[in-house]
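Input sequence (387 aa), recorded before submission:
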Amino acid sequence: MSRHIRISVMSFILVLIFTFSVISGGEETFLIKGAKIFTSSDQGVLEDASLIIEGGKIKKIIQGAELPSVPVRDYSGKYIIPGLVDAHTYVSGYERLLENTEVITSDLITFPAFDPSHTEIEEALRTGITTVNFVPRNENLVGGISSIFKLTRKFGDLLFLKKEAFLKISFNAEVVHTDRAPTSLMGAREMLSRRMRTTTGDNERKREGLFQGKGIQKLLKGNLPPLIAASTFEEVNTALQWFDEWNMRGAVVGGEEAHSLSKDLREREISVLLSPLLFSLPKKIVKNAASLLRNNVKIAFVSNTPEGKPLGLRLSALLLYYQGFSQEEALKTITLFPAQILGVADLVGSIEEGKDADFVVLSGEPLDLSSRIEAVYSNGSLVVGDK
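Predicted structure, token format:
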């Protein structure tokens, strides 16, 4: 049995063996006092505001009123932003997130590949990332099913927002080969459409190999939205043609040349998860990202860890800020917007009453990279820093 098949079989065994409880934050009630809060909500930026945290949730936002008599964690003079949402990452599981014995592996679910003891988890938490979309890699035409959960250092504490979130599809260069199908983007699109036509309803065709059917069935039934890897104009255009063919909505990840199709993306309500920006990239790449947002295409920056770095989220938002956007609007591309794209904005992505108490405390302005992250809270629990 090959190493990749052994890993895949073990992944499915883990799915059956482990029962994951939904872990809420502690029941402790306490007050986060006196900070400048970037809410990423309609409330905007609140000066000298405080938060009452109870049961892992934001119970109340207080500004200019008498504070209740509860334990206090004083962050006067500090800056608070929502916990960052990384909408596309391989953090801690890069080598285990590829099953390359098949071109279509639509049944594979990613979360058993998560390793909370990996050093990448600590790095992500220390940069303020609290929620991730843990995704299959791009090498397969259909790579499998992503999972959305809160980052944790303990596997048993894994808190899912969605165990089955997106079906990862790839129309980028990594899926095209010379020695096996698909050998072209056109061939990749046709191969996927042919598989979808022969996997209909509850009458699943006889399966030709491992891991090929149920994920596509869920896609066809509308239970799994598609997340398509596509970067160049040709790749993004191929994704749009596929969306039209199957009358589906979803998101594109990569998107370096997606700005050229802004109108088509906006009309089809297709969001774009952008690869992280760097100071070393050509200025036109940064301008292209800004162009998408100015043309009312919903975007979010992702880390692609370990291909990129977790710090790439704040850096990307900073470079967008340099393009003339407000600090608050730039921050939404790594907080509220990714949460909305992932369909979890009712829980995370902004600081609002009733939402999860996920937030980051900084020593200075959030997009000043010299500002230190002093504390990170997830579901009301302190996961980085001291009380």
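Checked by second reader. Confidence is low (pLDDT under 50) at residues 1-25, 201-211.
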